């Protein structure tokens, strides 16, 4: 299977490496600074589930791109418009795009540009981070991918891709109700990102405060109401799983956006992860004061980062 991975950051490098190890023909479509780094040092991934180190095929926007079977999208939500322009030459009539980006806005944009019949659904439950030396580090050992066809036309390809990914370590699944999976992850991530970014701490630190638990519960309740209003009410077992993560007083977890704040990043997925949930809340008249507070906090952080 010919796979083009857009972006060789944390997610792109990790899953690109896993797909190479599984036997796929993988090229990385990257911007020029990353291209130079990859050509000089190769792709390096450090993980408890197995390392990868080696030369990889690197292409840049504007190069002649052969048509891919699958384009794995692994940029941040704020880079999606440029990324869509860059992948367009590699997207043919039989190409499927698999986004691992968080949030549902991605799907609205991709469907509008390429058609829903070209866009698979995918969620990655993993914590990976790009290191200052250009390598990618897997934090912990959790790695679960769920993918699925959002239209019947992509079912065979989804099954083939699952078969390939299943040769890599980690939990892999193909799900007939992938839209529900996308919403479930977004609810978990949006509520978790809202509180871990707003309070700049881990779940354990937040829950150890006088009012922390109430804020986590409220953020989750707001996201759950939006998901229901959008027609994707979460099943009780899915809600229980999310509570198991977000209300675990021993959890050292924080969202990747909170890790981006810790790293002093000047850009954040504030709008893609929290802002878009608020757009949908407003559309349905769902009150969401905790998410609003988190979004204000993120926007002030971004103003300060831009001014620094
Ligand atoms: N990190 C994690 O643990 C998880 C992240 N996610 C989600 O996955 C997505 C990707 O996150 P993550 O990998 O952490 O982000 P990173 O910032 O580590 O990587 C994104 C990469 O995309 C590249 N990129 C952006 N635009 C383009 C473009 N037009 N052409 C080529 N390359 C481009 C960037 O390259 P450049 O260096 O040129 O800027 C960067 O290397 C996000 O939506 C995130 O929420 C999901 C699950 C877990
Ligand atoms: C899977 C999860 C929740 C891992 O932390 C994530 O997607 C993120 O933090 O962005």
Automatic annotation (TrEMBL):
Keyword hit for Electron transport: no
GO terms of biological process kind: pantothenate biosynthetic process
Reaction equations catalysed: (R)-pantoate + NADP(+) = 2-dehydropantoate + NADPH + H(+)
Role description: Catalyzes the NADPH-dependent reduction of ketopantoate into pantoic acid.
Protein name per Swiss-Prot or TrEMBL: 2-dehydropantoate 2-reductase
NCBIfam families: apbA_panE
Family assignment from sequence similarity: Belongs to the ketopantoate reductase family.
Entry EC number(s): 1.1.1.169
Keyword terms: NADP, Oxidoreductase, Pantothenate biosynthesis
Organism: Pseudorhodoferax soli
Domain Ketopantoate reductase N-terminal as annotated: residue spans: 3-149
Highest taxon of the lineage: Bacteria
GO CC aspect terms: cytoplasm
Molecular function per GO: 2-dehydropantoate 2-reductase activity
Metabolic or biological pathway: Cofactor biosynthesis; (R)-pantothenate biosynthesis; (R)-pantoate from 3-methyl-2-oxobutanoate: step 2/2
Domain Ketopantoate reductase C-terminal: residue ranges: 178-298
